[in-house]
Design a protein that fits this description.
The chain has 525 residues and is α/β, with parallel strands linked by helices. The protein has a 6-stranded antiparallel β-sheet. Helices cover 56% and strands 19% of the residues. The protein has a domain of 170 residues. It starts with a strand and ends with a helix. It is elongated, with a radius of gyration of 46 Å. The relative contact order is 0.14.
């Protein structure tokens, strides 16, 4: 339950601290006193959208802190538009704050009656009464699997379709690169060989010159070195000279062998021209850096070519997986439908009974189930709440026939029906009594008090009949200071309650009759 609320620098509230009690509490005050301000602050700490305009003029930040049995939640809003959320002084995300608050409190505003027109909300009522939480959780898990299977199949089909469109181009590119039979580092070797063949005469002439210079007839280098005799004068130098002569002879023999092998080969040269041209053409055509890049492209294309052959098999497997998921999801959806339909009669019976107690003597309610062709996140059902308020009136969708007062009473009946199922410790009704008065208001108050037997209920009301039934009564009021107007809230004692309820009956200065009437209302209850 909500135990304490602290508000600081929020709209007309500079500082407010109020303790709340268990059971049924009422909150009253003149129009414009600030009841909606307090409710707005509470909504903010429960994760509502923040607007820095709500910060009191001249202040840098506002703080709203709510203490529950389960812990303390706090929201801080700054003038620069930023906000921070805390749970027990630990920083949390806004989403985490919302998820926690959804388990702590239900704020029913005046506009929430419109929820009754929502098929999704109507379905949630049925699920709450049918205790479908576990079944819905199972369905949700299977629904996600089904969505993933459907997405996987759709993606496969998209890729298959795209690949089919590109198939000719893929095959053409792959064939071109595959036929080239490329080898890594090949181009460099081919260009080196091409240089040798295209300059064969020059290379051979140079090699022969080397041979003649080193070992040719006459004054060749090796012959001149052979004529050196320094064994006695410089034996170490002579040894080096002899070693050099032997090395030059070896170089000469190698150059002679190379010269013999260096011959013109026009056919080979032509082949090299064609091969080098082919590789360079592929490099340009496919925007590749080197042969390795072309080889990598060829291998990628090979995988795509193989993929073209496996799409049919993969699609067939994906279709089988999707069908399995569909069958399983359908089973759970059928169980959900059965549980919902089984719960419908007792829901309608309870709502009719409560509505009659709230003054709609000829109330009639039914729920029409519509089987959907497609799965949704909550099954394959849509439910429509049908309502009639008058004798012999045909049932029609509640959004078409219910007046504002009837909608308020119907929503209260729904809240009473599902309160225990949802296990919310605190429910706040913000003027749910709109459009009703007299004995109907009294009966609505009794309904709220019955809900409060097992949880905390706070009702913001303008009706004295409801205010008189509260076990605890708070009054919201404005007070002018020298510089500004302030909103306050206080817990009323017995005498103050009489005055407040009398004011609700006859105005700011209640008459003696209003005072007596207020006492009678309080004593009666």
């Amino acid at each position: 339950m909500l135990k304490h609320l602290h508000i600081e620098n929020y709209a007309l509230i500079s500082h407010l601290d109020i303790d709340f009690c268990n059971g049924f509490s009422v909150l009253t005050g003149e129009t414009g006193a600030g009841k909606s301000i307090i409710l707005g602050a509470l909504a903010l700490v429960m994760g509502a959208r923040a607007d820095s305009k709500v910060i009191t003029d001249g202040e840098e930040r506002c703080i709203i802190e709510a203490e529950f049995d389960e812990g303390i939640v706090r929201r801080e809003l700054y003038s620069n538009g930023k906000s921070r959320s805390f749970v027990d002084d630990g920083l949390v995300t806004l989403q985490e704050l919302k998820e926690l608050s959804a388990r702590l409190i239900d704020i029913h505003s005046q506009h929430a009656n419109l929820l009754l027109e929502s098929n999704a909300f109507q379905l949630s009522i049925v699920d709450a009464i049918a205790d479908n939480d576990k079944l819905l959780s199972t369905y949700s898990i299977q629904y996600e699997k089904w969505q993933q299977a459907a997405s996987a199949l759709a993606e496969l089909k998209r890729l298959a379709s795209q690949s089919q469109k590109d198939a000719d181009y893929i095959l053409f590119r792959y064939q071109a690169l595959s036929d080239a039979n490329l080898q890594e580092g090949e181009l460099e070797e081919l260009e080196a060989e091409h240089y040798r063949l295209s300059h064969a005469e020059d290379i051979r002439s140079a090699l022969e010159t080397v041979v003649n210079a080193l070992t040719g007839e006459g004054a060749s280098a090796t012959e001149l070195l052979h004529q050196c005799h320094l064994e006695e004068a410089a034996p170490e130098l002579q040894e080096r000279i002899e070693s050099a002569r032997i090395e030059l002879q070896d170089i000469s023999r190698e150059a002679e062998r190379l010269a013999e092998r260096t011959e013109m080969d026009p056919e080979r040269l032509q082949w090299l021209d064609e091969r080098i041209g082919l590789i360079n053409g592929l490099l340009r055509k496919y925007d590749a850096q080197d042969e390795q890049d072309l080889i990598r492209q060829r291998d990628d294309l090979a995988q795509q070519v193989n993929r073209l052959d496996t799409f049919d098999h993969d699609i067939a497997e994906a279709e089988e997986t999707l069908q399995t998921c569909t069958n399983e999801l359908q089973k759970i959806a059928d169980r959900l439908r059965q549980a919902r339909q089984a719960a419908t009669p007792r829901i309608c019976k309870r709502l009719i009974s409560e509505l009659k107690r709230l003054g709609i003597a000829h109330a009639n309610v039914d729920m029409q189930f519509i089987a959907l062709n497609e799965f949704t996140s909550t099954g394959k059902d849509e439910v429509q709440l049908l309502f009639a308020a008058n004798l012999n009136q045909s049932l029609r969708p509640v959004s078409e026939v219910a007046s504002g007062g009837e909608m308020s009473r119907l929503m209260l009946c729904v809240k009473a029906l599902i309160a225990g199922r949802k296990g919310l410790p605190t429910i706040i009704f913000d003027e749910i009594d709109t459009g009703v008065s007299g004995d109907v208001a009294t009966q609505m108050a009794h309904t709220m008090r019955e809900i409060a037997v097992s949880r905390q209920v706070i009702a913001i009301t303008h009706l004295p009949q409801i205010a008189a039934l509260g076990q605890t009564h708070y009054c919201v009021y404005k007070e002018d200071t020298a510089t500004r107007t302030e909103t306050h809230i206080r817990l009323l004692n017995a005498e103050e309650r009489i005055t407040e309820i009398a004011s609700m009956l006859s105005g700011k200065k209640p008459s003696p009759e209003a005072i007596a009437n207020a006492k009678q209302l309080l004593c009666y209850h």
